[in-house]
């Protein structure tokens, strides 16, 4: 949009012309994800995950709307209605497994999307708003996923609802009234189940709306790229369609293959057996864990074991929310003018430590609350905060970046100069 | 302002975490967590090879029918199967007429209402009915079973890690409490009304050994009904009750993955076509 | 449009190569289309009746307490069912009607079991638009032909529950049933 050499929409068919004159929707699509959006020519496969996240959202909304036709949000029959879907509804098992695994795959692609942004400095000026809206989407996703997990009303659903709303109980003074208000009672029951269902149905559409803002904000400066340097001219870009539609089509195929393998051959691998036991308010499962995508944050929550001025529980809750909220300040914490981690050797090293750190946190979050997992998660959580709040601001000051290429085209040609004789090798990506 | 405040917050969290770590470590050294009998004597289930295992698994219908017989003659007295319907048995290989007969002859009747008086009554089960529960409610179930609740078995193999193997190991795992355990944990003697079983999470299960003797059921297909065979068969049956659509899931999965592989191969070639001549 | 110039590389010969590439692009898009249709099928089919709804439940009814001339309403597969004990006069009335003159020609004998002509068992669903006709309950309007009357759009059924007047196209449907004894009938 903001590139003067972008293709202009010229309707080929009189019907499109007629529509475009009255409602320029074809033009909007053309400029957003069509040939009218110039994109850097050097994007690697990590840039596929935005479109894949959109696809995952679509899968969730479509399967979710369909499942809602059969699900009953009432504590007495919710669990049985899910079994009804699994056993009696035509293709119901497929729809439910697609929705349950679709949530996991949504998080997988969104996490990869976030880490791509972290490595390539996509949060930096002039794309701060893209980053902030992305974080809003992430928060909404977490809320949606949590409430969705409650709906089958299994043991993990029930106790997850109890534990997570219990976090709000850690807030001094108003905590308990807030918890009671959230649940509409003193423990999760029909009131909670019904409102969670209502919000679980609503929020994905809010997410879709914020996704539109996210894409809109992206189109103001245009997409970033693996070198992190700005587009200098027409030779640096290709039109989104057909170049990136083709690439995203291939990426979507690979995504769907992995998704289908999970859905059809290991549909319960990412779930927890306890959620196939109907909710029982009188018996807590031996080992309560949230879904895997919350494990890093759950590890941070549990890492605080000692009262220090504030109660340990409150520290845990504050830290868990801070772990996400601090990402909102990232554009102002990392002031290095160089975006891409490829040209920041020190940053790159710490980036990979962070990746490892989050994986360790995830592992500990899924493990029982025993030693040595608690101690490891304490170290890992400390590193997590230190990384964003102390290390990044310091390296962004003292680091000496590698020399940047003159332009995207120059970087591309230099890369192909090295891979002599096989200029089109896909492996070079 | 963001960075100084951020650094303070970061230092604060890191300090409290490291403080927690030190306190935790000191406690760990001072009072190492005591070993428990569950921790040392609990066993993971023995591997169980079933026809339904693996990505292409299919049910062995003969085995499912034998397993159903074990459920009917042994388990059904206490354990419900409340998410499964009689009509579902058709998929196990019983004919419609056999299914009707099984429902009609089921020992437990379905709750209904006396049409004349409105009093609670029972009627014979029909193919369209779900398996009736042996106890009207949880209180009755506990009262009849020494305060232990026999869980519903419909989803048992999905509600435990390693479900089918777990059921099989549990059913064949009853034994006397090892002397070594009692020596090490004298307080952990199996209580009255409980039975030692190393495959059960806390080692002591309230369910008495259900399969006690070879030939406890008489299989119509002539398979020798050893305890192990009966345990395997009922485990296979419970895989089916928990996931009756397993076969269509596997079949659909193969078709979908083959389709996607071809489609993705084409998409890759199309992608290469579109980009041919553009260095990137 | 510098980028588009690069799309047409000069070293690739026109003709065969280009056609082959077009073919692959078309094939890839076609496959995506086929996949989308294949996905749509289960999404549509899930709205069809589920297995528990299709499962044919049957009910048993004791008819011994229905006096001559009386009828009862009960529920069969989530729909109203009428069981009517016809009087000899009603049977005669029904048999007196020339079958050829009927909109949906059927005799009373065809609509009842042999030897049990006094038991008229029909669905209580008007064949016009599905309302429940009156006439089964005590004191309800039985219409001009002494059978059932649907108040929604004025369909009159006779004592064999055959459509005689009004917009309904068919007689009230007779479900599958069998007498298990003189007094107990199994429906479905």
Our estimate of the beta-strand percent of chain A is under 5%
Strands of the widest sheet of chain A, in order across it, are 1-2
Proportion of β residues of chain C? 15-25%
Order of helical and strand elements of chain C: HHHEEEHHEEEEEE
Distance between the termini of chain C: 73 Å
Characterise this structure.
The complex is a heterotrimer of chains A (429), B (280) and C (188). Chain A has 429 residues and is mainly α. Chain A has two domains: 236 residues, Cytochrome Bc1 Complex, Chain C (Up-down Bundle), CATH 1.20.810; 105 residues, Helix Hairpins. In chain A, 62% of the residues lie in helices and 1% in strands. Chain A has a two-stranded antiparallel ribbon with strand order 1-2. The C terminus of chain A is likely disordered. Chain B is mostly helical. Chain B has a domain of 119 residues: Cytochrome c-like domain (Cytochrome Bc1 Complex, Chain D, domain 2, Orthogonal Bundle). Chain B contains nine helices and four strands, in the order H-H-H-H-E-E-H-H-H-E-E-H-H. A two-stranded antiparallel sheet of chain B has the order 1-2. In chain B, a hairpin with a 6-residue loop joins strand 1 and strand 2. The relative contact order of chain B is 0.15. The mean pLDDT of chain B is 93. Chain C is α+β, with helices and mostly antiparallel strands and 188 residues long. Chain C has two domains: 37 residues; 136 residues, Rieske [2Fe-2S] iron-sulphur domain (Rieske Iron-sulfur Protein). Chain C is 28% helix and 22% strand. Chain C has a three-stranded antiparallel sheet, with no helix packed on it. Chain C has a three-stranded antiparallel sheet with strand order 2-3-4, with no helix packed on it. Chains in contact: A-B, A-C, B-C. The interface between A and B is large, with 70 and 61 residues.
């Amino acid at each position: 949009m903001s590139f003067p050499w972008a293709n202009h929409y010229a309707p080929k068919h009189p019907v499109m012309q007629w529509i475009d004159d009255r409602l320029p929707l074809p033009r909007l699509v053309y400029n957003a994800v069509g040939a009218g959006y110039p994109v850097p020519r050097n994007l690697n496969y990590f840039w596929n995950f935005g479109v894949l996240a959109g696809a995952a959202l679509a899968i969730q909304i479509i399967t979710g709307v369909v499942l809602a036709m059969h699900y009953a949000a009432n504590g007495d029959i919710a669990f049985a209605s899910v079994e009804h879907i699994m056993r009696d509804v035509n293709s119901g098992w497929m729809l439910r497994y697609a929705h349950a695994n679709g949530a996991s795959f949504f998080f997988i692609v969104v996490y990869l999307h976030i880490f791509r942004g972290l490595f390539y400095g996509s949060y930096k000026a002039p794309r701060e708003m893209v980053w902030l809206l992305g974080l809003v989407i992430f928060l909404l996703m977490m809320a949606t996923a949590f409430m969705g997990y409650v709906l089958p009303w299994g043991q993990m659903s029930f106790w997850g609802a109890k534990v997570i709303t219990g976090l709000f109980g850690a807030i001094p003074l108003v905590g308990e009234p807030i918890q009671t208000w959230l649940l509409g009672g003193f423990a999760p029951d029909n009131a909670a189940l019904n409102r969670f269902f209502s919000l679980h149905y609503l929020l994905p559409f809010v997410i879709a709306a914020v996704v539109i803002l996210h894409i809109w904000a992206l189109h103001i400066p245009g997409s970033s790229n693996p070198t992190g340097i700005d587009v200098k001219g027409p030779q640096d870009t290709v039109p989104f369609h057909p170049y990136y539609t083709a690439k995203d089509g291939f990426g979507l195929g690979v995504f769907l293959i992995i998704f289908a393998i999970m859905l059809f051959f290991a549909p319960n691998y990412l779930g927890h057996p306890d959620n196939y036991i109907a909710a029982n308010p009188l018996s807590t499962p031996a080992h309560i864990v949230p879904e895997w995508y919350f494990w890093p944050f759950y590890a941070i929550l549990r890492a605080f074991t000692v009262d220090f001025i504030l109660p340990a529980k409150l520290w845990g809750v504050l830290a868990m929310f801070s772990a996400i909220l601090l990402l909102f300040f990232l554009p102002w914490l990392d002031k290095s003018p160089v975006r891409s981690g490829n040209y920041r050797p020190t940053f790159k090293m710490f980036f990979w430590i962070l990746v490892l750190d989050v994986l360790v946190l995830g592992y500990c979050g899924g493990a029982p609350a025993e030693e040595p997992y608690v101690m490891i998660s304490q170290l890992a959580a400390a590193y997590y905060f230190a990384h964003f709040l102390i290390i990044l601001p310091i390296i962004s000051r003292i680091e000496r970046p590698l020399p940047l290429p003159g332009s995207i085209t120059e970087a591309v040609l230099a890369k192909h100069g090295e891979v002599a004789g096989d200029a089109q090798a896909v492996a070079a990506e | 302002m963001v960075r100084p405040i951020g650094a303070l917050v970061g230092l604060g969290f890191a300090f409290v975490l490291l403080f927690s770590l030190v306190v935790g470590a000191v406690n760990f050294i001072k009072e190492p967590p005591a070993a428990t009998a569950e921790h040392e004597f609990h066993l993971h289930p023995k591997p169980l090879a079933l026809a339904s295992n693996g990505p292409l698994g299919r049910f062995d219908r003969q085995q499912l029918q034998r397993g159903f017989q074990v459920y009917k003659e042994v388990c059904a007295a206490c354990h419900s199967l409340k998410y499964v319907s009689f009509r579902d048995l058709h998929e196990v290989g019983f004919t419609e007429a056999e299914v009707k007969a099984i429902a009609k002859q089921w020992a437990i009747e379905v709750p209904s209402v006396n049409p004349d008086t409105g009093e609670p009554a029972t009627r014979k089960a029909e193919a369209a009915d779900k398996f009736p529960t042996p106890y009207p409610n949880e209180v009755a179930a506990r009262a009849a079973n020494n305060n232990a609740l026999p869980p519903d078995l419909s989803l048992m193999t999905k509600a435990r890690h390693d479900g089918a193997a777990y059921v099989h190991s549990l059913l064949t795992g009853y034994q006397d409490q090892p002397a070594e355990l009692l020596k090490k944990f004298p307080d952990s003697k199996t209580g009255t009304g409980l039975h030692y079983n190393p495959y059960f999470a806390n080692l002591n299960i309230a369910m008495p050994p259900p399969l006690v003797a070879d030939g406890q059921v008489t299989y119509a297909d002539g398979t020798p009904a050893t305890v192990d065979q009966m345990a395997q068969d009922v485990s296979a049956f419970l895989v089916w009750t928990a996931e009756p659509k397993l076969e269509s899931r596997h079949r659909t999965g193969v078709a979908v993955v083959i389709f996607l592989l071809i489609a993705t191969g084409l998409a890759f070639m199309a992608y290469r076509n579109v980009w041919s001549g553009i260095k990137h | 449009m510098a980028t588009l110039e690069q799309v047409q590389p000069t070293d690739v010969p026109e003709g065969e190569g280009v056609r082959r590439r077009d073919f692959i692009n078309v094939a890839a898009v076609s496959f995506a289309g086929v996949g989308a249709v294949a996905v749509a099928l289960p999404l549509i089919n899930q709205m069809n009746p589920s297995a528990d709804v299709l499962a044919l439940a049957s009910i048993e009814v004791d008819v011994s307490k229905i006096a001559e001339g009386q009828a009862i309403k009960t529920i069969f597969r989530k729909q109203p069912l009428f069981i009517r004990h016809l009087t000899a006069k009603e049977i005669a009335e029904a048999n007196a009607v020339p079958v050829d003159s009927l909109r949906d020609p059927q005799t009373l004998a065809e609509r009842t079991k042999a030897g049990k002509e006094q038991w008229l068992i029909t669905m209580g669903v008007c064949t016009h638009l599905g309302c429940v006709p009156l006439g089964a309950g005590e004191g309800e309007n039985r219409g001009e032909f002494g059978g059932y009357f649907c108040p929604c759009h004025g369909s009159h059924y006779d004592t064999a529950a055959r459509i005689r007047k009004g917009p309904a196209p068919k007689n009230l449907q007779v479900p599958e049933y069998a007498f298990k004894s003189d007094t107990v009938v199994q429906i479905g």
